[in-house]
């Protein structure tokens, strides 16, 4: 089914993201995580491509998506980046996904990997989106950036480029993580003014450790509001307290987003079922109320 159809009823969609293990040996841990996540009945689970942007990992992404779809009977989105792939490689990946019945793809450009010369067949995610749409047989989602993509000239240019991705066929967007909901609401307004009318899910990452958050902020440039900064300073020497305060912060963000009628919330689980469960429990009645 097309993930975009989930939004037609106007309910708040609740989805999770997991990533493949860096080593084949970690696959059982991911399956264990997914089993726990499926209990929480998300609307879909997406699976990233390339652990930490380290290159071509489709066999594992595909296997995990297949398990979610065919064993757990949940909808799934396979992430797919194009910067390090030729058209022939993309064709092969699409064929493999099709064989498993996976028909939703998050089409991405991907990040440059040090020491790896980008391939020349695709420059932007919109090129991959158009390529997949022209081939047919798949529904395409795309990424968006409430705080503007790090390489974009400015916010106006970034939105213009996002519109190209939607015009190429992306009918559902998932946002980069953010910690200040006002940033997301401003972005939504810019997107709607630019005539981007597809469902846009808000990306939420619970802060579970200081080093994790510092890494993510360096990678994606998300700003840290003073209230979250105070939490990090206050509890940095107590990992359990920091984790629980981070979960509470994410729950507050989600409740505010749901109250403001956002299309959906996408939780970056970091493969941590404890955190996903605590958040789901914290927002369960709010999400149900929006259904
Ligand atoms: P694009 O949409 O191509 O945008 C990249 C830059 O180019 C932007 O600055 C944009 O403004 C500009 N641009 C776009 N189109 C044009 C154009 N036509 N002309 C001029 N400029 C243009 N990475 C992974 O490796 N694996 C993953 O699984 C993964 N999952 C992700 C999931 C989400 C929800 C998000 C938000 C990001 C994810 N990423 C993942 C990271 C992503 O690959 C990087 O953020 C990457 O730098 C940009 O990818 P993109 O698809 O948004 O690129």
TrEMBL record:
<comment type="pathway">
    <text>One-carbon metabolism; tetrahydrofolate interconversion.</text>
</comment>
<keyword id="KW-0285">Flavoprotein</keyword>
<keyword id="KW-0560">Oxidoreductase</keyword>
<protein>
    <recommendedName>
        <fullName>Methylenetetrahydrofolate reductase</fullName>
        <ecNumber>1.5.1.54</ecNumber>
    </recommendedName>
</protein>
<dbReference type="Pfam" id="PF02219">
    <property type="entry name" value="MTHFR"/>
</dbReference>
<dbReference type="InterPro" id="IPR003171">
    <property type="entry name" value="Mehydrof_redctse-like"/>
</dbReference>
<keyword id="KW-0274">FAD</keyword>
<keyword id="KW-0520">NAD</keyword>
<dbReference type="InterPro" id="IPR029041">
    <property type="entry name" value="FAD-linked_oxidoreductase-like"/>
</dbReference>
<comment type="similarity">
    <text>Belongs to the methylenetetrahydrofolate reductase family.</text>
</comment>
<keyword id="KW-0028">Amino-acid biosynthesis</keyword>
<keyword id="KW-0486">Methionine biosynthesis</keyword>
<dbReference type="GO" id="GO:0004489">
    <property type="term" value="F:methylenetetrahydrofolate reductase [NAD(P)H] activity"/>
</dbReference>
<dbReference type="InterPro" id="IPR004620">
    <property type="entry name" value="MTHF_reductase_bac"/>
</dbReference>
<comment type="pathway">
    <text>Amino-acid biosynthesis; L-methionine biosynthesis via de novo pathway.</text>
</comment>
